[in-house]
Amino acid sequence: MNDQDELIPVGKIIDTHGIRGNLKVFSYSGNIDSLQHCGSVLLKGKNGLLQEFSISGVVAHAGGFILSLDSFNEINQVLPLVGSELCLKRSQLPETTEDEYYWRDLMGLSVFTDVGVELGRIVDIFETGSSDIYVVRSDDREYLIPAIASIISLVDIPGNKMVITPLDGLLDL
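-> structure tokens emitted (173 positions)
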């Protein structure tokens, strides 16, 4: 599998919606644009099998999405899909701009302070109203690092490294 075929998890089907075969999706990123423009999605079932489906519609709903797949028009057809993970191929995602990264690319980066102290690795990322938060964990500590330009000094994806300039007190929490 080349880099363009790499699967990127973008959400999970958490329930059905109505009786017409629509699905409730919990989005990992909150970004609906990729799904609206990609045309198809790969569903990874609980058994690990991948199936590709054409998308007939996707709309924002209650912090997630409502997904409609071609050829599914009633609830009993989609019940087996509940619990499946939605994946896109990297080639289906829009190109990132400078200083913009996919969460997938940041996961596992080693995080250092600007004076060379290693804090740990990024193990999780979550959204807040104003910025993403990187969860950085070492063997004995966990840090919550806001993803803001005044703190993030360098992101080196090929080098598997992030450098931060912590604000006073940030690492004491």
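Residues 1 and 7 are 9 Å apart (CA to CA).
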